[in-house]
Amino acid sequence: MFCRLCRQHKQAPKRGVSTRPFIEVGCMLFRSDYLDKHAATRHHQESVKAHAALIQAVIGGFKCLYHLTKKEHAHHTNYADLLELAELLGCQYFEKLKIGRTNYTSHRIIDEMLEILGTVVEEPILANISASVAIGLEVDETTDVSVKKQLDVHVRYMDKNGLLYSQFLDLVTVSDGRADTIVKAIRTILTKKNIPTQRIYGLGTDGAAVMTGRVNGVAKQLQDTFPWMVSVACAAHRLALCCKDASSGVAYMNSFRDLLQQLHLYFRNSANRTAVLQAAAECLGLDNLKVKEVKDTRWLSQAMAVSNLQRNLTAVLAALAEETEHKKCPTAKGLYGFLATYRFVASVYLQADVLPHISRLSRLFQKENVNFLL
């Protein structure tokens, strides 16, 4: 028999080569009194203390890593620095992590610790989902920075008291965005997480055809397996699509939207132009508001862009006129010619009256809990 703790925290012998039982040589007598005698030795008690200190240091390391991931900081680059800072602040037990060449800060160790943290956090969530009375899935596609298509799956469930909870379930890489591929990935996730499929009553998706197609969409395929499941398309996404389609029906609105983006890029790409705009706003006594970008991935971002432009339109026109007259900038001249028209100004004020109400409705649709029956 060997003592695992004593061998792990082996102390150097006082002199010569040591043949200590349970440490260098195994004990051949399987008797409880020998175990009690070894447990009472000074070396074993020191090993127990050393192991307790190591456990404390490892738990502290897990807490530091959990803090980084919770705050969405880069854990591989910041973890070792955070441990060093903790040592400087008096957490001396982190020195126990440095055992020979091992210091528990390598990328492999950090990844393993993250997997453990994920398991610990996930277990009670999956237990609550399994014990719930009703479950709903929320599915959406996205693309990460490496241009790989990802499937994001969230779950909403109701406990026995009728309280609703929303939790992240999984994020998996899919080879393409076809409905068959997405459905296969969802089934794999449900099986891997042991989600009780007989209690899945809802599915929330965006309004894309691959999700809501009535012939072979994701919702249709899942409803073939779970006939009791109700599919609901995202109301905020549909509202954004309605606004975009309505705007696209007017040719001038397409040019208007492109002009807003060009105006944003004109000032964003030059510190000098931004300084001219700021000086014009100060001279006219206006707030120095940025020319906002219009993004397709940000629902109704045009509302904020139009609002800022309406409040700062005089300064923008003055800055463009300054660039046109003194620097002979052709881009500024073209932008000024488009902005300094009755049609453009009327469009700005018209949208400034309408878009805030649509934005408010969109934010209402995006709330976690909305009841339209009250």
TrEMBL record:
Note one Pfam family from the annotation. DUF4371
Leader sequence residues:
none
- Domain of life of the native organism: Eukaryota
Q: Which residues form the DUF4371 domain?
A: 103-217
Q: Which InterPro entries match?
A: DUF4371, RNaseH-like_sf
Give the protein's recorded name. DUF4371 domain-containing protein
Q: Which source organism? A: Dissostichus mawsoni
